[in-house]
Amino acid sequence: MSTQLRRSPAPERSSAPRHLITTAGTGGSRTSRMALGLAATAAFSAATLTGTVLTAPAASAASVSATATSSFFTTTAASADTAAAAQLAAAARATAVRNTVLTQAAALKGRPYRYGAMGPSAFDCSGYTKYVFAKAGVSLPRIAQQQLRASHRISKAAVRPGDLIFFVSGGHAYHVAIYAGNGMIWHSPRSGKTVSKVKIWTSSWVAGRVI
Length: 211
Prior knowledge:
By secondary structure, this protein is of the alpha+beta class. The chain has one domain (29-211): endopeptidase fold (from Nostoc punctiforme) (Alpha-Beta Complex). Helices cover 44% and strands 15% of the residues. The protein has helices spanning 30-50, 55-107, 125-135, 144-150, and strands spanning 152-154, 164-169, 172-181, 184-187, 196-199, 205-209. Helix 2 (55-107) packs across helix 3 (125-135). It is elongated. The termini are far apart.
C-alpha cells in the first residue's frame, strides 16, 4: 500500500509592502514605531506653524516690553512730580521774598530823603530799593539805571507787588520805586520828602522783576 505524502500548502505571500510588514519584538511593531515618528514630526510642525512652540519666548518678550513700558511711565510720572514740586517750592520762596520786601518797605516809612544815602537813617531812591531788597536776600546794583538793566522787563499788566517801577525819560531811568499794589508805590522821592506810599502819577514808567 503506497503512502502519499501531503504537502503543506505554501505560505501565502503578503501583498503588503515590505516597509509595512510587522515584526514582533521589543518596543512594538516596526509599523507602530514609524507611525509614532511620523505623528511626532507632524505634531511638531503643526505646533511651530500655529505658534505653539513660540508661545513661551513670545510671552517672555511681551513681559519684558510691558515691564520696560511700565518703568518708563513710572519714571516719567516721578520726574513730572519732582518738577511740579520744584515749581511750587520756587513760587513759595518768591512769595516769601515779596512779602519781606513789602514789609521792609513799609517799615521805613518817614525816613528822610538824602542824595547818595543808602540807609538806614536816610535814603535816596535807589539806595532805598537796594536796602529793602537786601533785607529780603536780593542784591541789587547801586543806581536806578543799573537796577533797570539787572531786572527782567515785564508788562504793566503783569506787574505785581514787590516788583520794581522805573520812571523813565528818553530810555533812561531817573527814579525807582517798589510796587505796592493797586497802582501804589513805596519810594524815597526827593529832597525835603520822606519815604512814603503814593499813587503812580505818570504813565512814563516801566516795570522790572528781580524776584
